[in-house]
Amino acid sequence: MFEVPAADFSLQATLTSGQTFRWTFHGEWWYGFLGSSVVKVRQDDGCLKVEAADAAVTPERVRRYFALDVDYPAILSSIDVDMQVHHAIVQHRGLRILRQDGWETLASFICASFNNIKRIEGMIDHLCQAYGRPVALNGFRGFSFPAPESIAEVSERRLRSLGLGYRAPYLRQTARTVADGALPIEQLRRIDYEAAKRALLGCEGVGDKVADCVALFGCEHYEAFPIDVWMERAMRYYFRHRTITRARLHDYARRHFGPYAGYAQQYLYHYVRQLRSVRGRA
DNA sequence: CGCCAGGTGCTGA
DNA sequence: TCAGCACATGGC
What we know:
Layout: E1 2-5, H1 11-15, E2 24-26, E3 29-34, E4 37-44, E5 47-52, H2 59-65, H3 72-79, H4 83-92, H5 102-111, H6 117-131, E6 134-137, E7 140-143, H7 148-152, H8 156-161, H9 168-179, H10 193-200, H11 208-218, H12 229-235, H13 246-257, H14 261-281
The structure holds a DNA duplex (13 and 12 nucleotides).
Protein backbone atom coordinates (compact mmCIF):
# COMPACT_ATOMS: atom_id res chain seq x y z
CA MET A 1 0.00 0.00 0.00
CA PHE A 2 1.30 3.45 -0.86
CA GLU A 3 -0.03 6.96 -1.30
CA VAL A 4 0.33 9.44 -4.14
CA PRO A 5 -0.42 13.16 -3.77
CA ALA A 6 -3.49 13.96 -5.90
CA ALA A 7 -4.47 17.61 -5.60
CA ASP A 8 -7.09 18.96 -7.98
CA PHE A 9 -8.18 15.46 -8.89
CA SER A 10 -11.51 13.62 -8.88
CA LEU A 11 -11.22 9.84 -9.01
CA GLN A 12 -14.99 9.53 -9.23
CA ALA A 13 -15.41 11.89 -12.20
CA THR A 14 -12.39 10.41 -13.96
CA LEU A 15 -13.49 6.78 -13.70
CA THR A 16 -17.21 7.34 -14.42
CA SER A 17 -16.88 9.68 -17.40
CA GLY A 18 -17.01 6.98 -20.07
CA GLN A 19 -13.34 6.87 -21.05
CA THR A 20 -12.71 3.50 -19.38
CA PHE A 21 -14.96 0.45 -19.00
CA ARG A 22 -13.29 -1.89 -16.56
CA TRP A 23 -13.16 -0.22 -13.13
CA THR A 24 -15.56 -1.53 -10.51
CA PHE A 25 -16.47 0.06 -7.20
CA HIS A 26 -16.66 -2.36 -4.28
CA GLY A 27 -16.45 -1.76 -0.54
CA GLU A 28 -15.14 1.83 -0.69
CA TRP A 29 -12.42 0.91 -3.22
CA TRP A 30 -12.15 1.09 -7.00
CA TYR A 31 -10.70 -2.09 -8.52
CA GLY A 32 -9.10 -2.08 -11.94
CA PHE A 33 -5.94 -2.55 -13.96
CA LEU A 34 -2.79 -0.65 -14.81
CA GLY A 35 -1.78 -2.58 -17.88
CA SER A 36 -2.00 -6.20 -16.74
CA SER A 37 -1.50 -5.43 -13.02
CA VAL A 38 -4.60 -5.49 -10.84
CA VAL A 39 -4.87 -2.59 -8.37
CA LYS A 40 -7.31 -1.04 -5.93
CA VAL A 41 -7.43 2.69 -5.32
CA ARG A 42 -9.37 5.23 -3.28
CA GLN A 43 -9.16 8.97 -2.90
CA ASP A 44 -8.62 10.30 0.58
CA ASP A 45 -7.73 13.79 1.78
CA GLY A 46 -6.09 14.98 -1.43
CA CYS A 47 -4.12 11.81 -1.99
CA LEU A 48 -4.62 8.52 -3.75
CA LYS A 49 -4.26 5.33 -1.71
CA VAL A 50 -3.08 2.42 -3.85
CA GLU A 51 -2.74 -1.29 -3.24
CA ALA A 52 -1.43 -3.63 -5.92
CA ALA A 53 -0.81 -7.35 -6.33
CA ASP A 54 2.61 -6.93 -7.91
CA ALA A 55 5.63 -4.68 -7.65
CA ALA A 56 5.31 -3.39 -11.21
CA VAL A 57 2.81 -0.85 -9.88
CA THR A 58 4.98 2.04 -8.72
CA PRO A 59 3.92 5.51 -7.58
CA GLU A 60 5.36 6.84 -10.82
CA ARG A 61 3.14 4.54 -12.89
CA VAL A 62 0.11 5.58 -10.89
CA ARG A 63 0.92 9.25 -11.44
CA ARG A 64 1.23 8.62 -15.16
CA TYR A 65 -1.94 6.54 -15.52
CA PHE A 66 -4.12 9.05 -13.69
CA ALA A 67 -2.36 12.02 -15.35
CA LEU A 68 -1.37 13.51 -12.01
CA ASP A 69 1.84 14.81 -13.58
CA VAL A 70 0.29 17.30 -16.01
CA ASP A 71 -0.03 21.08 -15.52
CA TYR A 72 -3.75 20.85 -14.78
CA PRO A 73 -4.49 24.56 -14.16
CA ALA A 74 -2.82 25.43 -17.46
CA ILE A 75 -4.89 22.85 -19.34
CA LEU A 76 -8.12 24.09 -17.78
CA SER A 77 -7.45 27.73 -18.48
CA SER A 78 -6.66 26.90 -22.11
CA ILE A 79 -10.06 25.24 -22.68
CA ASP A 80 -12.17 27.50 -20.43
CA VAL A 81 -13.29 29.62 -23.38
CA ASP A 82 -17.11 29.73 -23.19
CA MET A 83 -19.95 29.48 -20.68
CA GLN A 84 -20.97 25.89 -21.45
CA VAL A 85 -17.53 24.39 -20.98
CA HIS A 86 -17.02 26.67 -17.99
CA HIS A 87 -20.09 25.16 -16.28
CA ALA A 88 -18.81 21.68 -17.11
CA ILE A 89 -15.42 22.46 -15.57
CA VAL A 90 -16.96 23.89 -12.41
CA GLN A 91 -19.26 20.89 -12.10
CA HIS A 92 -16.68 18.16 -12.62
CA ARG A 93 -13.38 19.77 -11.70
CA GLY A 94 -10.71 17.12 -11.17
CA LEU A 95 -11.74 15.04 -14.20
CA ARG A 96 -8.61 13.95 -16.07
CA ILE A 97 -7.86 12.06 -19.27
CA LEU A 98 -6.39 8.70 -18.29
CA ARG A 99 -3.33 7.29 -20.03
CA GLN A 100 -4.65 3.86 -20.90
CA ASP A 101 -3.11 0.94 -22.71
CA GLY A 102 -3.25 1.48 -26.49
CA TRP A 103 -4.47 -1.95 -27.55
CA GLU A 104 -7.09 -2.19 -24.80
CA THR A 105 -8.40 1.25 -25.77
CA LEU A 106 -8.54 0.33 -29.46
CA ALA A 107 -10.36 -2.95 -28.83
CA SER A 108 -12.72 -1.38 -26.30
CA PHE A 109 -13.83 1.46 -28.56
CA ILE A 110 -14.39 -0.86 -31.50
CA CYS A 111 -16.88 -2.59 -29.19
CA ALA A 112 -18.27 0.82 -28.16
CA SER A 113 -19.57 1.81 -31.59
CA PHE A 114 -23.36 2.29 -31.82
CA ASN A 115 -23.73 0.85 -28.34
CA ASN A 116 -24.46 1.90 -24.77
CA ILE A 117 -21.99 1.98 -21.90
CA LYS A 118 -23.68 -0.75 -19.84
CA ARG A 119 -23.48 -3.20 -22.70
CA ILE A 120 -19.96 -2.12 -23.66
CA GLU A 121 -18.88 -3.00 -20.12
CA GLY A 122 -20.62 -6.35 -20.39
CA MET A 123 -19.07 -7.22 -23.74
CA ILE A 124 -15.56 -6.35 -22.54
CA ASP A 125 -16.14 -8.32 -19.36
CA HIS A 126 -17.13 -11.36 -21.42
CA LEU A 127 -14.02 -10.96 -23.58
CA CYS A 128 -11.76 -10.80 -20.53
CA GLN A 129 -13.40 -13.77 -18.82
CA ALA A 130 -13.06 -15.87 -21.95
CA TYR A 131 -9.54 -14.95 -23.06
CA GLY A 132 -7.88 -13.00 -20.24
CA ARG A 133 -5.78 -14.22 -17.33
CA PRO A 134 -7.47 -14.61 -13.92
CA VAL A 135 -6.10 -12.41 -11.15
CA ALA A 136 -7.08 -11.74 -7.55
CA LEU A 137 -6.54 -8.92 -5.09
CA ASN A 138 -7.92 -9.39 -1.60
CA GLY A 139 -11.52 -10.43 -2.21
CA PHE A 140 -11.65 -9.11 -5.76
CA ARG A 141 -11.40 -11.50 -8.70
CA GLY A 142 -10.89 -10.21 -12.21
CA PHE A 143 -9.36 -10.98 -15.59
CA SER A 144 -6.63 -9.17 -17.47
CA PHE A 145 -7.40 -7.77 -20.91
CA PRO A 146 -6.64 -10.35 -23.63
CA ALA A 147 -3.60 -9.77 -25.83
CA PRO A 148 -4.20 -9.06 -29.54
CA GLU A 149 -2.59 -12.43 -30.34
CA SER A 150 -5.22 -14.19 -28.22
CA ILE A 151 -8.17 -12.50 -29.89
CA ALA A 152 -6.68 -12.80 -33.37
CA GLU A 153 -7.07 -16.56 -33.35
CA VAL A 154 -10.65 -16.65 -32.04
CA SER A 155 -13.36 -17.40 -34.60
CA GLU A 156 -15.92 -14.78 -35.53
CA ARG A 157 -18.64 -17.15 -34.34
CA ARG A 158 -17.10 -17.35 -30.85
CA LEU A 159 -16.79 -13.58 -30.64
CA ARG A 160 -20.42 -13.21 -31.66
CA SER A 161 -21.39 -15.67 -28.92
CA LEU A 162 -19.87 -13.22 -26.40
CA GLY A 163 -22.43 -10.65 -27.54
CA LEU A 164 -20.24 -8.55 -29.85
CA GLY A 165 -22.77 -8.65 -32.69
CA TYR A 166 -21.59 -7.23 -36.01
CA ARG A 167 -18.45 -5.85 -34.33
CA ALA A 168 -17.03 -9.39 -34.05
CA PRO A 169 -15.32 -9.44 -37.47
CA TYR A 170 -14.03 -5.88 -36.92
CA LEU A 171 -12.40 -6.80 -33.63
CA ARG A 172 -10.96 -10.02 -35.00
CA GLN A 173 -9.45 -8.32 -38.06
CA THR A 174 -8.04 -5.42 -36.02
CA ALA A 175 -6.53 -7.87 -33.50
CA ARG A 176 -4.76 -9.55 -36.42
CA THR A 177 -3.51 -6.22 -37.71
CA VAL A 178 -2.01 -5.40 -34.31
CA ALA A 179 -0.68 -8.92 -33.70
CA ASP A 180 1.01 -8.90 -37.12
CA GLY A 181 2.79 -5.67 -36.23
CA ALA A 182 1.09 -3.82 -39.10
CA LEU A 183 -0.19 -1.23 -36.59
CA PRO A 184 2.47 -0.32 -33.98
CA ILE A 185 -0.16 0.86 -31.54
CA GLU A 186 2.16 1.68 -28.63
CA GLN A 187 4.29 3.87 -30.88
CA LEU A 188 1.44 6.10 -31.99
CA ARG A 189 2.00 8.41 -29.03
CA ARG A 190 5.40 9.34 -30.44
CA ILE A 191 4.08 10.62 -33.76
CA ASP A 192 1.72 13.55 -34.24
CA TYR A 193 -2.06 13.39 -33.92
CA GLU A 194 -2.82 13.52 -37.65
CA ALA A 195 -0.44 10.66 -38.45
CA ALA A 196 -1.66 8.56 -35.50
CA LYS A 197 -5.28 9.03 -36.54
CA ARG A 198 -4.49 8.11 -40.15
CA ALA A 199 -2.84 4.90 -38.95
CA LEU A 200 -5.81 4.02 -36.72
CA LEU A 201 -8.29 4.64 -39.54
CA GLY A 202 -6.67 1.75 -41.41
CA CYS A 203 -8.25 -0.72 -38.96
CA GLU A 204 -11.56 -2.47 -39.54
CA GLY A 205 -14.33 -0.95 -37.47
CA VAL A 206 -12.38 2.23 -36.81
CA GLY A 207 -13.86 5.44 -38.20
CA ASP A 208 -13.39 9.09 -37.20
CA LYS A 209 -14.97 8.79 -33.78
CA VAL A 210 -13.27 5.58 -32.62
CA ALA A 211 -9.92 6.79 -33.97
CA ASP A 212 -10.27 10.00 -31.96
CA CYS A 213 -11.15 8.06 -28.79
CA VAL A 214 -8.08 5.86 -29.17
CA ALA A 215 -5.84 8.83 -29.97
CA LEU A 216 -7.12 10.67 -26.89
CA PHE A 217 -7.51 7.92 -24.26
CA GLY A 218 -4.77 5.57 -25.44
CA CYS A 219 -2.18 7.67 -27.27
CA GLU A 220 -1.98 10.94 -25.32
CA HIS A 221 -3.10 13.06 -28.28
CA TYR A 222 -5.04 15.70 -26.37
CA GLU A 223 -6.10 17.63 -29.48
CA ALA A 224 -8.29 14.66 -30.53
CA PHE A 225 -12.00 15.50 -30.21
CA PRO A 226 -14.29 12.45 -30.52
CA ILE A 227 -17.86 13.27 -31.55
CA ASP A 228 -20.65 10.84 -30.69
CA VAL A 229 -24.39 11.45 -30.31
CA TRP A 230 -23.91 13.08 -26.88
CA MET A 231 -21.29 15.47 -28.21
CA GLU A 232 -23.56 16.34 -31.14
CA ARG A 233 -26.15 17.38 -28.58
CA ALA A 234 -23.64 19.32 -26.49
CA MET A 235 -22.38 21.16 -29.55
CA ARG A 236 -25.77 22.38 -30.69
CA TYR A 237 -25.13 25.05 -28.06
CA TYR A 238 -22.53 26.61 -30.35
CA PHE A 239 -24.75 26.55 -33.46
CA ARG A 240 -28.13 27.65 -32.12
CA HIS A 241 -29.49 24.10 -32.38
CA ARG A 242 -28.85 23.83 -36.11
CA THR A 243 -27.84 20.41 -37.43
CA ILE A 244 -24.24 20.35 -38.64
CA THR A 245 -22.22 17.42 -39.98
CA ARG A 246 -19.79 15.80 -37.57
CA ALA A 247 -16.87 16.77 -39.79
CA ARG A 248 -17.73 20.47 -39.42
CA LEU A 249 -18.34 20.16 -35.68
CA HIS A 250 -14.94 18.53 -35.42
CA ASP A 251 -13.19 21.34 -37.32
CA TYR A 252 -14.93 23.97 -35.22
CA ALA A 253 -14.14 22.27 -31.89
CA ARG A 254 -10.45 21.89 -32.61
CA ARG A 255 -10.12 25.57 -33.50
CA HIS A 256 -12.36 26.71 -30.64
CA PHE A 257 -10.68 24.71 -27.84
CA GLY A 258 -7.12 24.36 -29.12
CA PRO A 259 -4.40 21.81 -28.30
CA TYR A 260 -6.28 20.38 -25.30
CA ALA A 261 -9.63 20.11 -27.10
CA GLY A 262 -9.85 16.51 -25.90
CA TYR A 263 -10.10 17.67 -22.28
CA ALA A 264 -12.93 20.02 -23.27
CA GLN A 265 -14.63 17.15 -25.05
CA GLN A 266 -14.46 14.90 -21.97
CA TYR A 267 -15.82 17.62 -19.71
CA LEU A 268 -18.72 18.35 -22.08
CA TYR A 269 -19.49 14.68 -22.62
CA HIS A 270 -19.67 13.95 -18.89
CA TYR A 271 -21.59 17.18 -18.26
CA VAL A 272 -24.42 16.57 -20.74
CA ARG A 273 -24.78 12.93 -19.77
CA GLN A 274 -24.92 13.83 -16.10
CA LEU A 275 -27.56 16.51 -16.80
CA ARG A 276 -29.69 13.92 -18.58
CA SER A 277 -29.48 11.37 -15.77
CA VAL A 278 -30.23 13.94 -13.06
CA ARG A 279 -33.30 15.14 -14.98
CA GLY A 280 -34.35 11.55 -15.62
CA ARG A 281 -34.48 10.84 -11.90
CA ALA A 282 -36.46 13.98 -11.07
C1' DC B 1 -43.20 -3.11 -26.88
C1' DG B 2 -40.34 0.76 -29.21
C1' DC B 3 -36.48 3.60 -28.64
C1' DC B 4 -31.77 4.28 -27.79
C1' DA B 5 -26.83 3.56 -27.57
C1' DG B 6 -19.28 7.08 -27.03
C1' DG B 7 -20.69 4.52 -35.45
C1' DT B 8 -18.81 2.17 -39.44
C1' DG B 9 -18.81 0.72 -44.16
C1' DC B 10 -20.94 0.98 -48.37
C1' DT B 11 -23.56 3.09 -52.08
C1' DG B 12 -25.21 6.50 -55.01
C1' DA B 13 -25.86 11.34 -55.97
C1' DT C 1 -18.51 15.97 -49.85
C1' DC C 2 -22.81 14.40 -48.11
C1' DA C 3 -27.12 11.75 -47.15
C1' DG C 4 -29.28 7.22 -46.68
C1' DC C 5 -29.09 2.53 -45.35
C1' DA C 6 -27.97 -2.05 -42.97
C1' DC C 7 -25.96 -3.81 -39.21
C1' DA C 8 -26.69 -7.04 -33.59
C1' DT C 9 -27.98 -6.64 -29.06
C1' DG C 10 -29.44 -5.60 -24.47
C1' DG C 11 -31.06 -1.88 -21.20
C1' DC C 12 -34.67 0.88 -20.11
